[in-house]
């Protein structure tokens, strides 16, 4: 993972100082709320239903044990003992006091953490694959590029007051685990015919009121041009994105209105004027950043140690977890472990301070001190030796972090919803809990296979419902909670937006509807390995629609 | 509205010409864009400094032919949340090489001072007196900047290269490998 | 449940004026004596548009203590007890409807 140098640390400390001053000027009345609001948003500070919410940036979802312990400290000292991991690889605390924020931020700064640009009309956290650096199918570690870009866009004087937010994702494998195409800009590392590594640049994705998938505007961009090209895209957006209507202000609207080709031409013209200037990436500059990425000193280990197979035979629950939550690692003898934050009865994506501490300790012991946050709101230990898996599992099991439901029906992705969020129309957490409860039988869940349910409490779509296999969107009708259901969405390299199956249903009916949809899938699938999205692609939504609405 | 230039509150030598008001020969003036363009050839030959107030929703390319004869370009921030003029400023400086005075007008507030300076503005029509008085403090808040920019301060990239700390062998080897891989691909 | 901050002021029943406390974001309710209460039971309830308007105006000018005040509906039961007027206000008043993670 990336180690801050003196310059990085100084910047964060200076930011804390600036924010401390801004808070003081707000509390004294020198700044009005109108003037203060964008400033606090630029530090990730929202005002929600019950309290302020602090969103802390976890760049490309990578955390050290030390940093995770600090998050546990913030949870205990400044919040109510827990935090929530988000669909953008960040963490949120929901009970923050404004007057304590400067202290909390100073504490976070001591381990290189901050809330810079986790909100506001600027470039947000640059996300990537939670298996970056250890996946078997990537061409290089996308996080290094995410860091190069992160530095460039942090407190960028030109791009701090754009029409709206701007979200970037970076990937480096053909199989997309970072939901690239729902981002304002996605950069996919790949090799061209000559074997050179470069970026496919896609622009104009985004969910919300008018969802779009990103379109390719440059199939192959040499690596040395990445900063100048990103700059050209941002500048084009900053100048021509709409500012008259917040619902039409994202770059996806600009790309749609201009057309992809016209948009690409505009960017190209801007880019040509700057591509060989100061932003052309000097290999030495790149090397400086790359050198501060620390990788573990992996041991020389064999795949499949005999003790592991024995342990699997001896314990059915361990075996089931192995089959679900453990993935292949690019280094022999190692494994990638996913910690499900979706236990029965829990809130999707939440972890207590105690759990965070325990995970930090386990990471130190078993994962070279590193943890990842996935956009599916689960955590990952990326460097676990296979010989340690049994011991790790026992510890995780004791902490409630070993539910073998990763990627299954009860691994639900949900925004905080109306229980916390002032933007929400409806609640989402209790809906997720009820659905998960209906599918608590793990044999049933396993039989259903990979099935992503995404729930958003409002059209802002923080739960990414548009790309859920089953998507659930909360809407308000006559002061009552109603939910629209979509099916057939996908967030991977075959990204698709889900299709609405019919009129919105009441809060009390949502779990029944999901059961009906699942029942229809079981009847329609031609063999157990045919996944839910594959069936929907084959049959269309009609059979599901009929099943759900026949009796309603 | 105090005018801050080079860190100090100064008197404004320019007169803002509104709409069709007559343009005096012997004063420095800032003209509305449409007014200037309608008569650009003549106005560009004025003996006293000429400036143009350019709207934030029009390409600066339209003004480019006249830049070498303009002493000042004023750009507009109708709301501090509308950041289009930051892009215009950078284009004027970096693409078109404008060397005259670049002035920020409109909702110019203290918490954006550093952004203005780094985008290339050298004078600010500051909305609040208290903000103008706090200029030095506001722009002194940061010593680290990731991006190369117009204010001459070294970016972190430059600083790191110039003052490379002693690195251990493993780091040096890793850096060399990364640089080689990168250079190979490019 | 859409943000009431964009509402036009129209009273069709009993209302309170509510906001978030600046210092810590806590839900607060305006009182006619100029104070803010943290419990709905202690709020000033009115069925008069004029009174609501005044409370709101006073709340808005109280910039150092409260943020984004607005008028929210309440229900008054037969026994005189005041209850939140919709789900959003219930959640603001009583907290999230779900069990918060155990912090033992």
Helix and strand arrangement:
The complex is a heterotrimer of chains A (552), B (186) and C (104).
Chain A: H1 6-27, H2 33-41, E1 45-47, E2 52-56, E3 62-64, H3 65-78, E4 82-85, E5 91-96, H4 101-109, E6 127-128, H5 142-153, E7 168-171, E8 185-191, E9 197-203, E10 215-222, H6 226-240, H7 251-258, H8 260-272, H9 283-291, H10 306-314, H11 316-325, E11 326-328, E12 334-339, E13 350-352, H12 353-366, E14 370-373, E15 379-385, H13 389-399, E16 413-414, H14 429-438, H15 442-448, E17 453-456, E18 470-477, E19 480-487, E20 499-500, E21 505-506, H16 510-524, H17 532-539, H18 542-549
Parallel strand pairs in A: 6-7, 7-8, 16-17, 17-18
Antiparallel strand pairs in A: 1-2, 2-5, 3-14, 4-5, 4-13, 8-9, 9-10, 11-12, 12-15, 14-15, 18-19, 19-20, 19-21
Helix pairs in contact in A: 1-2, 1-4, 3-4, 3-12, 6-8, 7-8, 10-11, 12-13, 14-16, 16-18
Chain B: E1 3-5, E2 8-10, E3 14-16, E4 28-32, H1 33-38, H2 40-43, E5 50-54, E6 72-77, H3 84-95, E7 101-106, H4 113-119, E8 123-125, H5 129-133, H6 135-139, H7 156-162, H8 169-185
Parallel strand pairs in B: 3-4, 4-5, 5-6, 6-7, 7-8
Antiparallel strand pairs in B: 1-2, 1-8
Chain C: E1 15-21, E2 27-30, E3 36-37, H1 49-61, E4 66-76, E5 82-84, H2 87-94
